[in-house]
C-alpha cells in the first residue's frame, strides 16, 4: 500500500494534449484522476488536435476551478484559451489504497456552477463526478447536490436525455451508486443560445454502509471503486425501443402535399422516425431481439401486428416542443434483456425558412405562392428525413451484431453491452476499479476486442494508464 508522501515536482505526470483524440476529454479525465490520487499533472498543447480555437474553453475553466477548490489544489494556466495547465493537489494518498486520504478532505453538500455560455453541462460533470463519488462519503448528507447552468443539448456531448435514459441506468448496472439527474430547463448551444439548468444528486461510494466511519475518514469503511469487467456482462436481446423527439411545432409540415400525412414538424419527425426504424429493424437478424414472452396478451399481439411484425414495442418516450428551427434532437434507446441501455442520438435543425428573410413581395400569383410553399415543405421534409436517417443508421449499427471494423459477424450473445459513446464513459471507472482492487486481477479474464474502440475510448484508456500505472 502507498504511504502518505511529500509531493515533489519530479512526481508530476506530464501529458501531451495532442495525443490520440487530443481534445477536452483528455483534460477532464486527467484532472479527475489527479484529484482522486493526489498525483500532480502537467498538460501541454491542451486540445491541440482541435480544429479552430485550441486551448481551454469556458466549460473546462469552470470544471478546473471547482475541482481545484474542492480538492485544495494549486492550479496554473486555468484561463480560456490557455494551451497548458498545471494541477497540483496538496493532499496525500491514503495508507490503505491509491486514493486520496479522506481524513484530509472537507466536502460541502451543495455546489453550483454557472457557465457563461451554453457549454455542455455533462462534460463539466464528467470531470467532477469521479472525485465526488469518492470524497462525498465525508459529506454531512446522504448525497451531494451539484447544480450546473449551461447547455443540456449541445454538440459533441451527452445530452440530458442520453444521460438520464442511457448513462445513469448503465452506471447502476455496472455497480456504481445511484445517480439522479433533475432537469430544470433545457439549454441549447445552436441557434438562439438558451442557458439550461440541471441538478445532479450524487450518492457517493460507501454511502449506504458505515457512513459514520466514512465521514470521520476511516478508510476501512471504503472499498473504493467497484471492479468492472465488461466481459462479465452479456447484452442480451433487445426488448423494446424508446424514441425521444425535441422539435418545433412550427412551421407545420404540409406533408399531405407530398403524399404523406399532414402534421407539425415535431409530429412529422415522430412519424418518420418510427417508419424508418421499423423498416431498418426488419433487416436485422432475429437473434438481435429477445424472444417474445409466452404470456403476451391479445392486445400485445394486435400492437405487434400494427407495428409491421416488429417483435418488440417501439414507444415515444419523450416528445417536447422547442422554440426554434435549430433546436431539433432525436434519441433512440434500446432496452436489453440483461438490463443495459444502448443509445444513439442526433442533434440538428430544420432547413432555413426562405420566408424568414426580409419582407415578402406584395403581389404574388397564387400559382407561384403554392409553388414556393410546396418547395418549403419539401425542403423541411427532406431535412427531417436526412436527420432521421443518420440517427437510425447509427442506432442500427450499435444494436446489430455486425462489426463495422472487421469482417466478422459475432454469434448471438457476443454483442457489446454498451454503445460506443457509453463505452468511453466507463473507462475511468474500469481503471479505478483495477487500481483499488489489484488482488482481483485474473489471468483468465476474457479480453475485450479493442478493434471496436473509438478514438475517445483509446484516449481515455491512455490517460488512465499514464495517471494510474495500470498498463
Automatic annotation (TrEMBL):
A GO CC term attached to the entry: nucleus
BP terms from Gene Ontology: RNA processing
Biased composition, class Basic and acidic residues, residue ranges: 369-379
Domain RNA 3'-terminal phosphate cyclase: 20-469
UniProt-recorded Gene Ontology molecular function terms: RNA-3'-phosphate cyclase activity
Location of the region described as Disordered in the Swiss-Prot/TrEMBL record: 351-379
SUPFAM superfamilies: EPT/RTPC-like
InterPro entries: RNA3'_phos_cyclase_dom (IPR023797), RNA3'_phos_cyclase_dom_sf (IPR037136), RNA3'_term_phos_cyc (IPR000228), RNA3'P_cycl/enolpyr_Trfase_a/b (IPR013792)
Protein name, UniProt field: RNA 3'-terminal phosphate cyclase domain-containing protein
